Amino acid sequence: MQTSNNNSRMDVVFWGVRGSVPCPGRAFARYGGNTSCVELRAGGTTVIFDAGTGIRALGRSLHRRGTREAHLFLSHAHWDHICGFPFFNLAYDPGFTLHVRGGRNDHGGVRDALSGQMTRPLFPVALDNLRATLRFDDITAGGALSLPGDLRITTAALSHPDGATAYRVEHRGLAACYVTDVEHTPGALDPAVLALIHRADLVIYDCTYEDRELDAHRGWGHSTWQQGVRLCRAAGVRRLAIFHHDPERRDDQLDDLARRARATWRGAFVAREGRRLTLRLSRGTPEVSEPSVSRSPTTIGRRSPRPP
């Protein structure tokens, strides 16, 4: 664990929170219909998790902010997690540098996955024709690496068809985890996931289903919000973001799910497109602002160092 620092801060933005397929329409407007994409900023470094359709709006935002470099970590190469990449505007900008990392599987590495969907007749622009500086790196789950700005990334393998990788980002005493897509064994807590999320400030977890729905979706590679709560409680996590929503889950159903999750554990909330969170260390008593319907930033503060 890195040394804490009273000026530590992480900013997290949800740009896409759906799983499987984008879902447009009035019934999905409040929580959002774009597929997985989360931005994390710390120490002057921009980290992106997954390149679902949410990365399209993220690209416009990064362009407005003048961001010239970012690090993209793919959980895996299933289409809902990469299909936004061809529409990431900064990939066409010769002044932009993107580092792309992800786990390798029997079908190839991250470059193969992104290149494969950008071939005719599927897409008119080949990966090799993009003008940004693209650097690809296949990583082995279970390892760790460092990024500029005093960031440390730790990885873990997940149970999912064709494999998936979870990530933990640490920065000067703060920790945020991105854990999707994963299928759990009922009645058991995955030791690799528990170790990765241990005492994290924020865990973004695959909560596609509810426990009562899981039997009908065995082998699909996804988990439940109840399992997310169990994991976070056992690991001493501060907050759980319920993420990767079933594309059939309407806003009113997610409202109900949010109420039940909150009643089960106060640290849980339902991720919503546009939600911004700030994790920071402070000398005073921890203050936690709950996510609300508004799109204003939400701050997660905690004491330094963390009490037992």
Write up this protein.
There is one protein chain. Residues 284-297 and 302-308 have low confidence and may be disordered. It is built from five helices and 15 strands. Strands 6-5-4-3-2-1-14-15 form an eight-stranded mixed β-sheet. A seven-stranded mixed β-sheet has the order 7-8-9-10-11-12-13. The longest helix is centred in the C-terminal third of the chain and has 14 residues, at 251-264. The protein is α/β, with parallel strands linked by helices.
What is the topological layout?
Layout: E1 9-16, E2 37-42, E3 45-49, H1 55-65, E4 69-74, E5 97-103, H2 110-117, E6 133-139, E7 144-147, E8 151-158, E9 164-171, E10 174-179, H3 191-197, E11 202-206, H4 225-235, E12 239-243, H5 251-264, E13 268-270, E14 276-282, E15 298-303
Parallel strand pairs: 3-4, 4-5, 5-6, 10-11, 11-12, 12-13, 14-15
Antiparallel strand pairs: 1-2, 1-14, 2-3, 7-8, 8-9, 9-10
Please tally the helical runs, counting DSSP H or I stretches of 4 or more residues.
5
* Strand and helix order: EEEHEEHEEEEEHEHEHEEE
Q: Measure the end-to-end span.
A: 15 Å
Q: What portion of residues belong to β-strands?
A: 25-35%
Radius of gyration: 18 Å
Average the pLDDT over all residues and give the rounded result. 90
Structural class: alpha/beta
Poorly predicted runs: 284-297, 302-308
Largest sheet entry: 8 strands, mixed
Rough outline: globular
Based on DSSP secondary structure assignment, what is the total number of beta strands? Answer: 15
Strand order of the largest sheet: 6-5-4-3-2-1-14-15
Fraction of residues in helix: 10-25%
